[in-house]
Amino acid sequence: MNNINQDDLSINIFDLFKALWQGKYIVILFVLLSVMLASFYLRFSEPQYTVYLQVVPAEKKEGSATNSLLQSYGGVAELVGISMPSFGGNGNFEHFKEIFKSRSVYEKLVNDYELMKVLFGEEWDKKLNNTWKPNPPKTSDKIKNFIKYTLGIRSYPKTPPGIEEVERIFNNMVSISTDRKGIITTLSIEISDPGLGKKIIKEMHKAADDILRHRSAIQTEVYIEYINKKISESQLKEHRQALIKTLSEQQKILMMSNAGNFFAAEPFSSIVSSSTPTFPYPKTVLVLFSSSGFLFGCIFVIIYSFTKKQFFDRQN
Question: Do 25 and 170 sit in the same domain of this protein?
């Protein structure tokens, strides 16, 4: 029984290779058609460039000294009900990475009128004081709306570009990654216009950094107000001295937060754009399409040979 199964198996494999050899020209035709499709795809697809900016945690020269002073007087300050904040470290940098692709950052981009005009340039009417106007519906849009109407799905009128559209576009275009050592973080975007990509990366970096700067300033102002209140209430001399010292350091933190330099993430290098398109990559596309053509050609030949054999067997 095993010998019979082995013979059948060897015959089936032999028939398989025989069918592929007899249909080799069909397989070659499939490969050539796939290469032609790859060529059309490469010719008509819009090339994408990679624009990236490398950032590192912002250096705070006074950070270590401030932290040591805060720790020295922190025990006394906590006796009067003040929880001392930490200063420096990579905490702000980690927060920066978390909010870089957040809605808070995208909201700042939406409020940038000039950037929105560049992003959705074809939808702005220069004759009407650069006001937004919806593009005339394309044939594909009309077909989609007709299908929706047939299925009972509502179609809503197009609205001016807002946070939802910006978030959808940028979530697909923008990425953030950190090296294995956790020091250098790369902010990158895949886009057809490298100049626009540089502007977007620059604005997103500034927006995320400014958000953290603003939040830190508000938190520090709250600490300062609370410390001033505690100073007026404190009776012990050593408590008052500790609170005054703490107040001085908090004021330094506030000044550094309001300074014009980078707060959480500073550039490690300038914004860089790839000199050649990074997508689509011609070699990858050609290999993928030709391999798919070869695979589908083999499948077609095998199915055709099997169907043909079954047909003649029934005839006999």
Answer: no
